[in-house]
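The data are set out underneath:

___
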Amino acid sequence: MDDCIERDIYLEKDDGKLTLAVRLYNDGFAFRYKDVDCGTDGPVFVISEATQVNLPENTTTFAGGYSATYEFDYNKRSYSDLKNHNGVFNTPLTADTGARWLLLSESDVYANDVSYCKSVLETKSGTASLGWKFGFKRDPAKEVHDDLSSPGHIRITNLETENGFTTPWRVAIIADDLNGLINSSVIDSLCPAMDQDLFADTSWIQPGKVAWSWWSGGDQHNYDIQVQHVDFAAKYGWEYCCLDAGWPTFENRIEELCTYARDKGVGIILWVNYLKLKTPEEIEKLFSQWSKWGVVGVKTDYFESDDIEVLESMRNVAEIGARYRLMVYYHGCINPCGETRTYPNIMSSEAVLGEEFRKWSTAPEPRNCLMYPFTRNITGSMDYTPACIAITKTGESAGFSLAKAVVYESAFQHFASSAYSFPSFLGLPYLSRIPTAWKSTKFIDGYPGEHITLMRTDGKDYYIGSMTLGKRNVSVALDFLGEGVYHAYIYADDEDGSLVLEEKQVTAKDTLELSLMDIGGAAVLITKDEMDTEVESPETDREGYTYYECEDGVLSGEARLADANMCSGGRKVGYVGNGSGNAVELTVQAEEAGTYELLLYYCTGEARNLTVTVGGESYELRNLTGQGFDIPVETSIEVTLKKGKNTVTLSSAGGYAPDLDRIAIGREE
């Protein structure tokens, strides 16, 4: 990892002096300014930096814009587009010069004592030069004091630091091809090795799969939902369960939950906002308590700054976390810069426009998802939190969605779908078997924003992930296999984009042919073992019942449609109630007059009421509870219908009703 040539160049002028440190690797170089002496004691102010990168003419770049959380779209730009661009890019930036591939980023940003900020790459219209400039910080005038609000942000215009400061390494990975770029270890190698005393025992640092109820609508204030996700993780061999914002509602039961989970072989991870992590004393107090409870990991959030103060907090979280044997991963943060080499308990970082955005939008678009393997994920583990079950509103196929489990690397791999959806998912055996740490990776084919196919192995099994924006055929030579016959489990798309499984035997002499549809993909396991591919049977419509989707009804007042991946048809109706005029009206059919059972499928994260009106008669459903606002649950009532058409109205004159998925009418045999 440290195979390089390093030279120090000493520069001096008047009372000032500095050392320009340069390292040259086989696949890149790096430089930093260190021990910058301004000839004075105490604080100093850095007012600007003049470092520039000049790319060769006709270079194509792939970079985002600015985001305090590093969550943005990566855009492809021609050389002329770059020359006309006026703004800033967060790192990393990937470039295709025609002869070489290049990635620009930083290293050792917070692994050592922090005396300089994280930087951005600034462009000026009329030139293709990229300038290393100060990043952004939290705006004191727009600071926040609650857990779920983002602060304002302003540019760092002058940097207050101490005499003798050192900048992070500025890194350029340079490779002949994309395989070299993806497999480079330059960024990690520039950080110090771990402290042998602090990490004398690293057996407690274990990568793994994480069950996570937040994205799929699991109420984080509900203790029972977390127990259900622990049970799911234990049943299917997932190592961890993450409790997100809201868990302090049952803080007095965390130790109980940790004990319950530990007895089932599952570790508990707790979420926390940066506002509670500003000082070493605050971190010490919090982590010591969590360690006593039996917590094994920490999910931090809302750092949202490139400034020294916040970077120090990130380092303190890793260091103090190590003392209490707590694994760490960061959200709302800068992209990773090799610090996991110094602090191996850092399991992942967000810094990506991830799947969580699809809870309320269609972002990130598939094209952006095909940028990440060539940009963000090269800098370090990426907590994208793939759902892996296709989110139909994005246009992604089932194969495209499942392939993310292979293509995206994260030592903590959060799978965002719920414990209620996974058991009947065809791809669950694949997810339950897949490792989250890899021995080696082989890039097979691809181009940023268009397609990718790669193979990863843990030294025993081989996993292939393939994703594409446009329809294509992919050939994968299996010459990386050892001797003998292997079982290949190929999860791919049918003509409708639904997941299908093909099993076959292969050897190292074979070539695997994958036919991918638009926004399609495939995920493959090749192993000497046989895998049990059975899953639970999905819930089916009841025989003798007729089902009616609420989104097909007549909506009045403020009632509106919303995407809901877990609901039938991928949609639901919300904002029903809070006034009787905000309602859904459905027309149902009865073959004869009489008493029928009406099944109601709804979503709610709190107790809500609903009025069901049929033929002038109203039925009141009080205190309906559920598993969250994205996961439908069922209840039933008996109603009287006349022969032929009947109007069913769902409303609530008081507060809001639950979100509504569908109803069914039938008679139990």
In short: The two ends are 70 Å apart (CA to CA). The chain has ten helices and 42 strands. The chain has a mean pLDDT of 95. The first strand starts at residue 5 and ends at 13.
